[in-house]
# Entry
Amino acid sequence: MPERLRGFRDFYPEDQEIRREIFDTMRDECRKFGFREVDGPSIESVDLYAHKSGEEIMAQMFNFMDKGGREVTLVPEFTPTLARMVASRKDLIKPLKWYTLAKFWRYEEPQSGRFREFYQLNADILGSDSLHADVEVLNLAGSIMKSLGLGSKVKLKISSRSLLEDIIKYLNIEKKDTLYYLLDRWVKINEKDKENLIGELGISKEKLESIITGKIINELKSSNLDRLMKIMDEFNEYGTIKIELDLKIVRGLAYYTSTVFEIWDLEEKMRAIMGGGRYDNIISQMNGDYTPAVGFGMGDAVVENLLKREGLWYEKDKRRVFISIADDKGRKYSYYVSKMFRENGIITDVNVTERNLGKQIEYAAKMGFKYSIILGEREFSNKNVSIRDLITGEQWSMSLEEAINKLKNS
Ligand code: HAM
# Structure
């Protein structure tokens, strides 16, 4: 038996159909917010990520030499591609609101909620440095959570790298990287390592704790803090999901300049569902034009885990009707009937085997169809259909029109 590669997934219909509905919900919300769909290549030059994404992503790339001797990679994230797309078109009218839902690849250790190939929705606003752009992308993320039925199960955690810079200055911290590391891993590292790292920072444990708990902001006067507070206030005004300030959110990617945020399950038992922030410099590094941007990436894997945990992972789009065929006249008639059903938007499957009628109906019931239409010589001559409820076993004759109405409304 050939084996599947580690960190990759097969999607069988029972899960794929739910996945499609979830992706449809994500896309619908983006469109409702006025975002327009874009897409990019699956392979990019490795250079695109150097100095932008940061060491972690560089180490996780699925890179290889192509036949022309170029060092290329399967795309690990969308942001650098998006920046390249915007940087190379000076004619674009700003601000842009763009989204994409695509596959990305990272050679990381597979674990719950993390794969080597995953889908990620990206939604970004490019060309506005106003805090209202931050609020808009956050409202979109919150609305997606709400539409998926997860509104009360998740929270948005927000911070700001420029605010953290103010704190670093205020406390005279020289080892900025150590502080970032400590904040990022706070729940993961042991007490002894914590003590050592705090020692390196040259600040008291109490001061560090005031950063961890967020209390430090009461001592601080900073326009970056005011901006963050305004973003939180306006986010609450729209009101989708819970939001909290968490200075431990620093994010792994190198390009963020100020606002940074993540969505987590309330108990923080899973991995981050979504992550993003403001990145004001990438595009100008490419074309010299100041094009501030803010956006997020939302993966499919943790959303799936959470929906499953909450019992919300089920097919809403039950397959509607299966046409069973009794004889040759029934087969001929089935082309007309199935076409009429499909033209009326009814999901219609039809027997494609030589099985007898009993076996066809048995198959339809096992496959989870609620109704089977039965077509034979009698239905053909009477110009009607027989319809069987596969759950109760009841069966009726009715006109095609009546059957269409019944199926459309069931
Ligand atoms: P990121 O934090 O690397 O940010 O990824 C964002 C989200 O993508 C994560 O919270 C997670 O849901 C999902 N994700 C990431 N890696 C994996 C994986 N290996 N398996 C499954 N899901 C994963 C970015 O990618 C930024 N480019 C997002 C962004 C857009 N920032 C601004 N605009």
Notes: The pocket of histidyl-adenosine monophosphate is lined by residues 77-79, 106, 108, 114-115, 118, 120, 122, 124, 253, 272-277, 295-299, 301-302 (CB under 6 Å). The chain has two domains: 13-309, 321-408.
